[in-house]
Amino acid sequence: MGREDHRHRHLDRIAEVRAGSSAEKVPYPIGIRETEVLGSRMIGSGLLRLTLGGPGALGFQAHAPDEHVKLIFPDAGGVLRLPEPNGLMLRWPRPAPVSREYTVRRHDPVTGEIDLDIALHPGGLGSDWALTVRPGERVHVAGPPGGRIVPPSYDRYLLAGDLTALPAIARWLEELPRTAAGWAFIEVADVTEQIELAAPERFEVHWLHRGELPAGTGGLLAEAVRAVRWPAGERVHVWVAGEAGQIKPLRGWVRELGLAKGDHDITGYWKYGVADFDEEHDHEHDHTAAAGNEDR
Q1: pLDDT 10s digits, 222-267
Q2: Among residues 66, 34, 7, which one has the least CA distance to residue 142?
Q3: How many CB atoms lie within 10 A of CB 74?
Q4: CA dist 45 to 190, 192, 224, Å?
Q5: Are 208 and 185 contacting, i.e. CB atoms less than 8 angstroms apart?
Q6: Which domains are delineated in the chain?
Q7: For 31-84, how does the pLDDT look when each residue is reduced to its tens digit (9 = 90+)?
Q8: 166-213 residue pLDDT tens
Q9: 8 Å CB contact between 216 and 272
Q10: How far apart are CA 289 and CA 250, in angstroms?
Q11: Fewest CB within 10 angstroms: 38, 214, 275, 282, which?
């Protein structure tokens, strides 16, 4: 008797969750691939879109708006240490390789092209690399390790985040049913960081300008989200990501509302003053989703 092929079992589980009533994290087979940089361009004044492709990108999978990959970089000595395939997972060397996490903004399964929108800021390892990398250069991509699959059956969706969460929010708004209703709150410095969004007609999009305040400070985003009201009896899915301290009040807010675990996801992508934040190892995390870092 041959060994059962589990490589595509996650696709069945994704379909089951989408047909159900509650969101769920679904793991994918995790691969490591060498991709080619095809090009880059600015999206607004704050995001740089990096397009990866080449033969190594073929077979890449993308199923959820907030799924992420790791780009792996050489260490301080110039040595590139890569994880090794281990069945449907990866075996990571210790100490861990130098890497940065990015949301998968777009994936074309026909051409294999992968778009990553990188939030730029001075001194960020990933953003500095993205600004100088040239077409034809190679970069290794690990993942995605999985995605949080959200059924299209909620009455409304509430999406909120800062510039680092904007790529996921933009993909959310593209992939939700055109009949979906809800709100999107995005904190940016000013109008130059705003981008075109393909939101469903019944979605309210609110751009929150923090002005001269440094990114990751102030309570603008949490205040706007907490002011939202919806009709009693409606099921709402809440998705929030951004600076860990800014979104912390919203963890208590969803508990006050009594939202079920599958009806909300609040993720710290980065932390003010921390160069390489990992929420999985931060004492304030309250879920098992993989976290981001300062270059998300």
Answers
A1: 999 999 999 999 999 999 999 999 999 999 999 999 999 999 999 9
A2: 34
A3: 11
A4: 10, 6, 23
A5: yes
A6: 22-146 (2.40.30.10), 150-281 (3.40.50.80)
A7: 999 999 999 999 999 999 999 999 999 989 999 999 999 999 999 999 999 999
A8: 999 999 999 999 999 999 999 999 999 999 999 999 999 999 999 999
A9: yes
A10: 17
A11: 214
Strand partners, 264: 238
C-beta of residue 91 within 8 angstroms of C-beta of residue 155: no
Q: Which residues pair with 32 in a beta bridge?
A: 142
- Quote the mean pLDDT of the chain: 90
At 273, the amino acid letter reads: G
Q: Would residue 78 be called left, alpha or beta, if left means φ above 0 and alpha means ψ between -120 and 50 degrees?
A: left
Question: Residue 273: pLDDT above 90?
Answer: no
As to burial, measured by CB atoms within 10 angstroms (0-12 exposed, 13-18 middle, 19+ buried), residue 146 is: buried
5 Cβ contact partners less than 8 Å away, ≥ 6 residues apart: none
